Amino acid sequence: MKTNGDSENSRKKLVRDQLINKAAELFATRGLSRTTFNEIGQELELSRSALYHYFRNKDEILEALIKDQTVVPTLSMKALIADRSLTPTQRLRRALEMSVERKLTGGARFRVLDQIEFEMPEALAEQHHRSKRAVLDLWTKIIADGIKAGEFRDVDVRMAAFAVIGMANWTAWWYSPDGKKSPEDIAKVIADFGVRGIATSKGDTASSSLQGVQRDLKNALAALERLTP
């Protein structure tokens, strides 16, 4: 049974999320420096005094946005890597699915951080960079484990990590909520592309013959065509 305290905490979390979403939208359209703390609250019809109940200033909202988009995914990936019941191939597939779904359901949250990075206060910009480096290290770890297990080809680990990160990130720029496929559908296709790109025959059952490669390319092109609005 929910208590009054539980209901109050749920409402506070809901309003905080709404403020972060609205701030991300305003930062994306106006820029960080041209968006004021009061304007963010006014978008949700909150007075300045009410706004202080959730955040003390604009930088605190920005910090929450950075945490949501970098720190939280880092913790999820660490838990995934720690799950020894999964093979490296399964970890990479799930990591890609989680990454894509998060970006496609987060609205402007992911895209805006790269847009306003040059405007961030120095301490928050460094926090953002540090978090992105931590995420890169985790992707690198998943791929290195796959190479060691013989499931992935002996590729340049950091280059492969940048490739799969870029593949997941780019979906946020072309995805349309009005498109034919859901975020979950797109995540599965992108994850399949990512795994097949570095898998050996041990890690993935796709044929390594010329006919198999041609078939995979045709399937990939057909899948991309179905994903676009």
In short:
The chain is built from 10 helices and no strands. It is mainly alpha-helical.
Layout of SSEs?
Blueprint: H1 4-30, H2 37-43, H3 48-51, H4 58-82, H5 88-105, H6 109-116, H7 122-148, H8 157-174, H9 183-198, H10 210-227
Give me the count of strands.
Answer: 0
**Main sheet?**
none
**Remind me, CATH topology?**
Tetracycline Repressor, domain 2
**In percent terms, what proportion of residues is strand?**
under 5%
The CATH C-level name is Mainly Alpha
Helix amount, in percent?
Answer: over 70%
**Strand and helix order:** HHHHHHHHHH
Mean pLDDT: 86
Radius of gyration: 20 Å
DSSP helical segment count: 10
CATH homologous superfamily - what is it? Tetracycline Repressor, domain 2
The low-confidence runs, each spanning 5 or more residues with pLDDT under 50, are 203-210
Task: State the distance separating the first and last CA atoms.
Answer: 44 Å
Overview features:
229 residues; mainly alpha; Tetracycline Repressor, domain 2
Question: What would you note in describing this structure?
Answer:
The chain has helices at residues 4-30, 37-43, 48-51, 58-82, 88-105, 109-116, 122-148, 157-174, 183-198, 210-227. The longest helix has 27 residues, at 4-30. The radius of gyration is 20 Å and the shape is elongated. Residues 203-210 have low confidence and may be disordered. The protein has one domain: Tetracycline Repressor, domain 2 (Orthogonal Bundle). Helices cover 73% and strands 0% of the residues. The protein is an all-alpha fold and 229 residues long. The protein starts with a helix and ends with a helix. It has 10 helices and no strands.
